[in-house]
Write a structure and sequence with these properties.
Number of strands: 13
Structural class: alpha+beta
Oligomer: single chain
Distance between the termini: 14 Å
Largest sheet: 8 strands, mixed
Helix content: 40-55%
Shape: globular
């Protein structure tokens, strides 16, 4: 039976006949998403038969990962054979299809005995998913020329499609890297959805029954709350072994890395911990000197100092030479007191980043942040910005002031050298630049500060802080769209520009990301069986 869920304009929700209030007066319970979780629970309860246990590091891999591997051709291209023994070569992996039907359109492969074959490619984790998903009976799949999967669980040499046999390719034995490494390398959540998607069945159904856009807004609000709760839960688990200061520090470091250097920054935050920095860097020096010493420590541990990477040997301008000489000297003194081994500087990626996001600039940013808040600590400084507001200023204006004051802690970071340079010895900029821009500071506020402080508020049973966190989350303006939010906007709302105002806050953008993760990204259930769509249908 489909799950019956309705939301009226007063915020009342009916789930399977039971009516509850969502907008509670007690803000300690406002991060409550019972109805959203019930949808996800029902969704998981109708998983199709044949859920196989093929996994990496004990975790079942997602079909999305296999698609990324195929798209980027992260496999050994020489001496590849289909399951029926034909030599094959991939000329083009095809165009990633974001609509219904095969995963890649217009691919080209060179197949032994058949020459160049053009057509669509369908991707699965296991070969048996073709049958489980019923593709042989679906019109959209009639143009498939190759079935690709990670493992051949059915041991079939091909799949039957009308009056022809479609060749199959098992990727596992041809991977360029170990599967666990590929799983770590590829950021599947942000890959590679674009705004080119058409409206999905859920949006078409919403339009057909003329449901008020407020319902979608409410739904996204509580999906957004669920996303923050999940993040807060992850941070709270870390608090079993780490301090709040270390948890926040590592989380900010990870966020500064974006997807290209996320793991590198995460590792750097581990081997150069807050306690290590506190023990090696003196507090009785100026902020500028303290920042320089922290830079030397972090650059040395990252393996990015000019003495560690030959790419910087050509630095010639006097300012750069003086700066490099200073940080190299500091590093030569403190490195003997560090137990952990420095990273290999070649692990860092500069290729796909904007210059302002280079890891060198981001290390300078975290160094400045730590130096300016050295004695109190970043966590306590940010916590104080929420606690300072008295009751008379806890309304909308007061909460917006909290947002501004907190983000300014990140926005007002500058450095005598790195505000003018992107790399060691690079071209000097004419205008002094911020080390962290406005957009990144907002991303850190939503994705890091809110959930970390929420974990703290719940551990300390601080209802007042939780109320302010909720209000700040609710009032924060939307961020710049990313690939997934663009994709989901079209999927749920369609291309009607009049509906753009529905996703008008960061909270609702987070809701789009959570809906994508819980429903649209599933490898086991097609759109037609999605509980979200069934819920909408039940309203008629």
């Amino acid at each position: 039976m489909p799950l019956e869920i309705c939301v009226d304009v007063c915020g009342k929700v009916t789930i399977a006949g039971k009516r509850i209030m969502l907008e509670k007066k007690d803000y300690a319970d406002n991060f409550c998403t019972l109805h959203y979780r019930e949808l996800v629970r029902r969704f998981c309860s109708i998983k199709e038969d044949g859920d196989l246990q093929y996994s990496v590091n004990g975790k079942k891999i997602k079909e999305q990962l296999v698609k990324c591997i195929w798209s980027e051709q992260l496999f050994k291209k020489d001496k590849m054979y289909t399951e029926d023994g034909l030599r094959m070569e991939v000329i083009s992996s095809g165009l990633w299809n974001l609509e219904e039907g095969p995963d890649f359109k217009d691919a080209e492969i060179l197949l032994e005995g058949k020459g160049v074959v053009k057509g669509d490619v369908e991707i699965h984790v296991c070969s048996g998913d073709w049958v489980r998903h019923g593709h042989s009976k679906q019109k959209e799949y009639e143009g498939v020329c190759l079935h690709v999967f990670m493992w051949n669980d059915r041991k079939n040499k091909y799949v039957k499609l009308k009056n022809r046999l479609v060749p199959q390719l098992e990727l596992y034995n041809y991977l360029k890297y170990r599967l666990d490494k590929l799983s770590d390398m590829i950021d599947i959540e942000n890959y590679p959805h674009t705004g080119s998607a058409n409206a999905g069945p859920c949006q078409k159904r919403l339009s057909a029954i003329s449901l008020d856009d407020k319902w979608v807004g409410y739904f996204l609000d509580y999906a957004g709350d669920e996303r923050i709760l999940v993040k807060a839960g992850r941070f709270r688990k870390r608090l079993n072994t780490q301090t709040f200061e270390q948890v926040l520090y590592e989380a900010i470091m990870e966020s500064l890395g974006y997807k290209n250097n996320k793991e590198q920054f995460k590792h750097l935050g581990t081997i150069a911990s807050i306690n290590e920095i506190k023990s090696l860097i003196p507090s009785d020096v100026s902020i500028q000197e303290r920042s320089r010493k922290i830079q030397a420590l972090l650059f040395g541990m990252s393996g990015l100092l000019p003495s560690q990477l030959p790419r910087y040997a050509s630095a010639k301008d006097s300012l750069s030479l003086d700066y490099i000489k200073e940080v190299e000297q500091i590093w030569s003194v403190i490195k003997n007191d560090i137990e952990n081994k420095p990273m290999d500087g070649r692990l860092w990626s500069f290729k796909y980043s904007r210059p302002g996001n280079y890891p060198t600039r981001r290390i300078a940013a975290i160094s400045s942040l730590l130096a300016e808040n050295f004695e109190t600590g970043i966590f306590r400084v940010i916590l104080k910005s929420f606690e300072q507001r008295n009751n008379s200023k806890s309304g909308i204006a007061g909460i917006k002031a909290i947002i501004r004051n907190t983000e300014s802690i990140l926005l007002e970071l500058y450095d005598e050298y790195w505000s003018y340079y992107y790399i060691f010895g690079g071209r000097r900029l004419k205008i002094r630049g911020r080390l962290i821009g406005r957009e990144r500071s907002s991303v850190i506020f939503i994705n890091i500060i809110i959930p970390v402080l929420l974990a703290y508020a719940r551990k300390m049973d601080d209802a007042v802080l939780e109320e302010r966190l909720f209000k700040a989350y609710k009032l924060h303006s939307k961020l710049s769209p990313n690939n997934i939010t663009r994709f989901m906007n079209y999927r749920i709302l369609g291309k009607d520009t009049q509906k753009e105002d529905v996703v008008n806050t960061a909270r609702r953008q987070q809701g789009l990301l959570q809906v994508f993760k819980d429903f649209c990204e599933s490898d086991d259930i097609a759109c037609k069986r999605c509980v979200l769509l069934q819920s909408i249908n039940s309203m008629v």
